[in-house]
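Sequence in, structure out. Go.
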Amino acid sequence: MQQSPRRDQGAPLCTASQQHGRYSTLASYIVVPGRSGGQMNFTFTAPYLLWLLPLALLPFIPRRRVSSPLSSLEPLRRLKNTWRLRFYRLNSWCAALTIAVLILLLADPVQRETHRTTVREGVDLMLVLDVSASLGATDILPSRMVAARNAAADFLAERDNDRVGVILFSGVPVLLSPPVLDKGHLIARLRAVEADRSGTGTAIGDALATALARLKDSPAQSKAVILLTDGRSNRGSITPRAAARAAAALGIRIYTIGFGSLQGSEIPLGSSGAPARLADGSLLLSALEEEPLLEIARLTGGQHFLASSGEALRDVYQRIDALEKSPLEVKDRITDHPLAPLLQRLILLLLAAELLLFRLWLRIRPTGYLLDLVALTAFSLLLIPPPGAGPILRGEQNGPDLALAIDVSASMACNDSGETRLSLAQRDVRTLITSLPNSRFSLTLVGGEGVVQAPLTEDREAILFFVDRLLPRMVASPGSAPEEGILTALSTLSSAGRERAVILLSDGERTIPTPAPRLPQSIPVYTIPLGSVAGSPVLQVNGQVQRDRNGAAFISQRDDNRLRQIAAVTQGEMLLRPDSAPATLALIERWRPPELLTPPALWWLWSALGLLLLRQFPWSRKVRGWSAWVPAFTMLTLIVSACGHIIERDENDFDNGMRHAKNGAFEDAARAFARAIHSLPANERGLVLYNQGTALLQAGAAAPAVTALEQALLLLPGDAAARTNLALALRLLGDHPASGSGDGERQNEESSVDAPMNREQALQLVEAVKPQVFAETASQAESRERTVEKDW
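Output:
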């Protein structure tokens, strides 16, 4: 058994800061009036630290009594009670309050707002819809296709709490949408679907495998596929039975719907709709075979339905809707408002009061200046985040709503600097999406018009799926119209209370003759220029340079003036690319979610608490003479070491892990990588998780290796080495590899028809099918009549 080699370093990884877990242990609630009808509570992340609060009484413990040189204190009692004496008595209270507030800060207080609602647990569904030529039959009026798509759209509209995706298939599966919660644009696109009259056949197995690939990583407790077809499977590399066995291994139910009449109907082909005929001239009828559909439902724990009319089909969807509804649950929507920043500033004020009021003015202890000054300086360092990290204290949880508008006109195939413009845009967008886990995204394609590819959704994987499959000329309307694309992207943003913005990635060229529309100023547009000012030749679909009638090459040049004007009008900004780094880094730094108290921040807090307690402890008089200098000297040493600790600890943990791994101490390497995960910058965590999982795998700890490698794949989607090691780890857990099946070998009924399929085999099967993305191909776009001055 060989693992993929560990990687000491790699290309900059575009990963997101991992959101820390919710609070598992809570102190008693203090109920106060809430906002927006919610219940507001005070609670703590680490309530057990509240047991340290009695330490705040140390300043009130009387010091060791010493004999007085005065024979009587009566004259002192007759002195007037001045403001100076009153402030003098506040010294112990100020010290006690400082210690108490510092302990509360270590316990991490939050103001938690709870809104209780009754909802249904969501279900992840994939609707697999047959759009082969036989769906154009008119035995069900107005046609099978119209009845099928309308019933499916109505079904989607009723699934409010569910994520639903759609796959269309005839000879090949086409992904209309991965599972998304916002289904408005998906329903509109579904109602416009037409039957494929090219006669490419019906590939049910490939379509089911594509649906399983989209559901296999879903965290939903209930996952199901709804297959609607009116014919038999006669195309594809995977049989329906093999796909059903894979679904059973993945725990996904399949509901099958046979749509049409058992006696069959004529199949219209071509633009004329002429019926299909056999070689002898007789009519070819679409024949519905129920046996395979019954077998698919039986193997996966689903059910089979027969619908011979539009009304019957709606009834079937209603029955499936009832079967796939989870019970009502009372759920709490929690919003945390951190109090740590307020307490931190309060401690700074108390330390400053100690130094200025009690040391400089009242001179209560004339020997403690250095200690107080060092403590105040050290604690102030908490306000400065370490290099490369986000803010130390946690902030609000919701990120902005971002509408991505990506230019996919022909000029995006231009290669200005060793990489095409579209690939640069894809890299920038991937960095942005993976770095903002709390944001919602939509995707709009920009060509001669704007086309919504994915509605506003929290499903970042769905957006990334489409981004990775973008191609030049994907929009049917030729040309480039950035302003129209922006307006389309704006239509995907909701009016919720989140910050909203549009991000346009384009070379800025406008190649359609119509005037540019006015852009609203209510939502900022951030423009990211692609390409070069000098320009680059425009390439055709076949890779050849596109030329005009005189033989001169078309040159596409970046229009910085237009991009800068768009940003200025909408109160946005044009973001230039810093060297080879992604152009979206500035937006990431602006919207990156703040993290919890980091280990360096907690280290500073505990150091400050130790110093305060050490100073307030009732030492004897001899000890007090030198105890004031020991903490000061110690704190100065700790400041120097801690600054290096903040900057270098991450690299040390990672380097230690690599050293242990090279020496064969895989368990020590895994522990070192585990420490580095929590402290390294967000853009390197995927690499560390991969190394941790590989070390655990080599140490024989398969179960934790699976967990680490699965998390690594979330941050490094499609990483071949991580997938290989994950498969090895799953095999060590007890799964056995498929016997006698090589790469590219078709899964069929002849090989162990009734043998159960394990998860590893199921994953290999469903990942073997590569679906198409629902968009017009480049050749289709090229064939349309050109109505622009330039043809890109």
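Check: The CA atoms of residues 228 and 257 lie 5 Å apart. The mean pLDDT is 73.
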